[in-house]
Amino acid sequence: MDLKKGLPVSIQLKTEVFQNEELQEFLFDLQGQVVKIGDTLYIRYKEMQEDETEIPVTMKISPDGSIQLIRSGEMRLRLKFVYREKAETSYQTPYGVMFFSTYTRDLHFSLTDRPTAGKVSVEYDLFTAGEKIGNYKLSLDFTA
Hints:
This protein is an all-beta fold and 144 residues long. The chain has a single domain, classed as Calycin beta-barrel core domain (Lipocalin, Beta Barrel), CATH 2.40.128. It is 0% helix and 74% strand. The protein contains no helices and ten strands. The chain has strands spanning 7-19, 22-37, 40-48, 54-61, 67-71, 76-81, 86-93, 96-112, 117-128, 131-143. The protein has a ten-stranded antiparallel β-barrel. β9 and β10 form a beta hairpin.
């Protein structure tokens, strides 16, 4: 498995959002790429918005076990997940910068070699100005 040059993968992404006593689920089947640079693994894909805009997304899996979710484009977001820790972040919008923090309740990552496949699972709480916005679950499966 030579991931230095990048490997095309199929991605199944599921997000659960629990806000205001209401649960919403989002499911996506995407094409992406897995790249390994040093000991860090990057999963890259494009998220399609309702208006057909594509948002580049990178999930960075560091050797220390932390995971970052980076959304590029006009609105830039970088969420950091560290097991049972709170992490501060900002969200760049056309109207200015908003500040958030995450508290990661659960975090798992697994990778197999033949076939090249993996699973990322993150459960976290999102806060702004000290107030909890909601509970989130993110599950990403990929297969070459």
